[in-house]
Structure formats: C-alpha cells, structure tokens
Amino acid sequence: VSRSLGSKVHRSQGQFPITQNVTVVEGGTANMTCRVDYNDNTSLQWSNPAQQTLFFGDKKALRDHRIELVRASSQELIIRISDVLLSDEGQYTCSLFTMPVKTTKAFLTVLGVPGRPDITGFTKPAMEGDVLTLTCTAPGSKPAANIRWFRNDKEVQGTKEVNATGKSFAVRSSLQFQVDRREDGVAYTCSVEHVSLPNPYMTTEVLEVHYAPHLEITHSLIIPQEGQYFKLECVSIGNPIPEPVLWSKDGGELPDIERMIVEGRELTITTLNKTDNGTYRCEASNHLGTSSAEYVLFVYDPNAFAQHGPDHALIGGVVAVVVFITLCLIIVLGRYLARHKGTYLTHEAKGAEDAPDADTAIINAEGNHVHAEEKKEYFI
C-alpha cells in the first residue's frame, strides 16, 4: 500500500497541466480548458494575464459577471469568458498545486472585427478635368484589415495607411485620379478583408461626371435628289443632356416651316427641291458650354443624274477595242518569234543544203570541224 501511494504521488507530482491556445472574435465567447491525466485531489487554478486568480477549483475568485465555471473536477477545470474584449487578450495560466506547483500557459487571441467601410471624397456631380481623391476607411480591426479597390470589376491599386488606436487599428486606403467623361457611370468599390469575416465587407459608389456637349449631324440619304424625303439628326453627347436643339439654315431661321419639320433633335424635309441647298446648323448647350455642328446640303436633279449615268454602249465599245488590240499583239508577237527561229536555223544550216543526212549537214556547216560536235542538234 505504501509503495502504491508513493507511486501515485510521484505520478501526480511529475505531470504538468495540459492547455491549448484559444482564438475568439471580439464580443464572442472563449472556453479555457485545463486538464491533467492523473490527479490525487490536487486543486487546479486559472489566472488571467494580470495574474489574478479567476477560479480555484470550483471557487470563483474574481468578481466578473462575464467569467463563469463550466466544469470543475480533480482532472479538469473549464471556465467560460463571455462578451470577450480586446483587453482580455493575453497569457492565461493554469496551475496544478503539487509540490512544487506546476503551471502551463494558454494564449487567448482576440480578433477585432473591422467596422463597415465608408468611402469619402465623392463629389456629385464631378466635373470633367477635376482631380478626385477617394478614401475608404475601416476602423477597429485587429490585426489590421486589408483594403482593395475595384473600378467596376477590375482591381486598381490604392495607397494604404494603418494607424493604431489602442489595441485595434484604423486602416485607410486612398485612390486618386483625374476625371474625364469616360468615368461617368463607373462604379468604385471598396472591399475590406479580415480574418474575422467570412465574407468581405463592401461598399460601392457610382461616379457621375458632367461634361460639355459635343454634336454631330447624321443624314438619311447619301445623294439627296429632288422630290425625296430627307432627314437630318443632331446627335449630341454631353452630361447633362444638351437641350434644346436649335436648327438654322445659312445663319438664319428655317425658310419653309411647312416642309421643314423639327421634332426634338430631328429636322425633316418632306419634299426636297433646289431651294433647300445650303448649310444647316444645329446647336445645343448645357451649363458647361455650347456646341454646334453643320451639314452642307446639295440637292441633285434626278434627270440630270440619270443623263450623266454610265454609257453602257461606250463601255462595250472600249472593251471591244481592247480585245482587238490584244489579239493583234498576240499575232504580231507570234510571227516575230517564228521568223527569229527560222533565221537561226538557216544560219546554222549554211553549206548543208546538199548533205545526204543530218550528221553530214552539221559537219559540213559553216564553222570549224573541230567544233562540229558542239553544233549537233537532236530532234525527237
């Protein structure tokens, strides 16, 4: 019995408490567990980072309504900390009161959840040419949150700044750019990522850009002719939309309001005639400026246009002459080649008219007998 008790005491005195680190989100609940494999009724104790005793066995030592006992036995001591604060972070100590006392540390990590992001710096509306600095702020994160910018769906780089405020961090990211009309309607999104968040926090602002107008005139006919229906449209680009659109002809008012009908941005001439020739101008403005566009109208006589149409007989005659000349050139070239070839044969055959065969003719041909073999020609 004495040996058995001595063995138990030795095992109890030789072991250390077992703990594990805990990570919890600010405002959440942390369970701190301490256990031993063997205990002969020796007490366990939990202490906070300030070395204040929280529980000694099942006895509560610190008056804090957030800390409560979960389980107490000779082999296990579990306590719960509710509504965890950033200030609760630190090393907690579990002690086994043997001789000497055995202790083990457990670190409680408290994550600070960042606040919802906020974008500042938007001016509504922005003017073309302005320089904007957009700033996205995410306060109260621990560790520091990460901020990303998106222009529509494409990520763009901002300038990040981190400031410590007590145990948490305030993160700011700025984006600077010059505004042009292509920015009108573009969505800028600030995304905040943090280990405490299952999904990023996001906030979006849509940029509205005001810019001066630009006008162009489109027309319904390429070659306007007398008697036709003709339409001009004043296409305007600007924000705000430039209105109203004013039409004029040759620097004055439209001369025939019965045939020249204005509907919004369109000018319609119901029946064209020669008196409609001239320069037509549309003009529109918004609070940033005025723009205009011009179109020079020339009305063609359909009969004169038909008379000056393509002469198919003339085209046919030209084609026939070209074909005839081409045939003549081919014939002349053929005769030239034939005569050139004949002359060469006659020259080579000089002195061989009376030869009984081809070999003798070549040998008797004008020239040196030494080169007779060089003058042989074979025909198959």
UniProtKB/TrEMBL annotation:
Q: Which GO terms describe its cellular component?
A: membrane
Q: Name one GO biological process term.
A: homophilic cell adhesion via plasma membrane adhesion molecules
Which stretches make up the Ig-like domain? Answer: 17-109, 117-207, 213-298
Query: What coarse category fits the chief subcellular location reported for this protein?
Result: membrane
According to its UniProt record, where is this protein located?
Answer: Membrane
Q: How does it sit in the membrane?
A: Single-pass type I membrane protein
Annotated TM spans? 313-338
Coiled-coil regions, chain positions: none
Q: Which UniProt keywords apply?
A: Disulfide bond, Immunoglobulin domain, Membrane, Repeat, Signal, Transmembrane, Transmembrane helix
A Pfam family assignment: C2-set_2
* InterPro entries (UniProt xref): CD80_C2-set (IPR013162), Ig-like_dom (IPR007110), Ig-like_dom_sf (IPR036179), Ig-like_fold (IPR013783), Ig/MHC_CS (IPR003006), Ig_C1-set (IPR003597), Ig_sub (IPR003599), Ig_sub2 (IPR003598)
Family assignment from sequence similarity: Belongs to the nectin family.
Name the UniProt record assigns to this protein = Cell adhesion molecule 2b
Species of origin reads Gasterosteus aculeatus aculeatus (three-spined stickleback)
